[in-house]
Design goal:
- By secondary structure, the protein is mainly α.
- It has two domains: 1-50, no CATH class; 64-185, uncharacterized protein from magnetospirillum magneticum domain (fold of a uncharacterized protein from magnetospirillum magneticum, Orthogonal Bundle), CATH 1.10.3540.
- It is 68% helix and 6% strand.
- It contains eleven helices and three strands; from the N terminus they run H-H-H-H-H-H-E-H-H-H-E-E-H-H.
- Strand 2 and strand 3 (152-155) form a beta hairpin.
- The longest helix is centred in the C-terminal third of the chain and has 18 residues, at 126-143.
- The model has no long low-confidence stretch (mean pLDDT 88).
- Pfam families: BrxA.
């Protein structure tokens, strides 16, 4: 999240993508020792940020820490179909049916359904499925949407500020509100 916030701050200050990329690659702006990691991180952040309105930048910089986390997660959801579908098909469905948490079996079932639906996922190795399942949960925990509780992950719908909610609605991104369990959109 910190790397995304750094890029957002620089963009908001009027820096160009080229200037930021130079700072990442040559000045180690992200403080990542591996050049390939820096390159990949910058490429991912750039792709994700190009998919959101510039109006987000100021809002993200001014938001509380919890809202910064959720906005970062929203950016990821906007960009990544698998993560978005996990939130809608597993976590949101559990919440709507008044279930308290998500288990490893729930995530495993989701991944098995995706294997049937997607040729790409069908080609993944078992270790990729396990790693992806773990990452789906870890990202939701980092965003504050899930909380680790024993063998399951308790659903914790986050507070989303009115400003962020309005920004999403203004830019026709209501499905993202649904994906992060916004209670006013239930």
């Amino acid at each position: 999240m910190q790397e995304t916030l750094t890029v957002v701050r620089l963009l908001h200050e009027g820096k160009s993508w080229e200037t930021i990329q130079k700072a990442v690659m040559e000045d180690d702006l992200f403080e990542q020792s591996n050049r390939t990691t820096r390159k990949n991180s910058f490429r991912e952040i750039r792709r994700r940020l190009k998919n959101i309105p510039e109006a987000w930048w100021a809002e993200m910089l001014d938001a509380s820490l919890d809202n910064k986390k959720i906005m970062n997660y929203l950016i990821v959801l906007q960009d990544n179909r698998l993560i978005r579908e996990f939130m809608l098909e597993v976590v949101r469905e559990k919440m709507l049916t008044l279930q308290q948490g998500v288990t490893r079996q729930d995530v495993r079932g989701f991944m098995e359904r995706k294997r049937l639906e997607s040729e790409e996922v069908r080609g993944w190795t078992e270790s990729t499925i396990v790693r992806t399942s773990r990452n789906l949960l870890m990202m939701a925990v980092s965003a504050g949407v899930l909380e680790k509780s024993g063998d399951e992950h308790r659903i914790t719908p986050p507070y989303i500020s009115e400003n962020i909610r309005n920004l999403l609605l203004k830019h026709h991104m209501r499905p993202l509100l649904l994906a992060v369990l916004d209670r006013s959109e239930a």
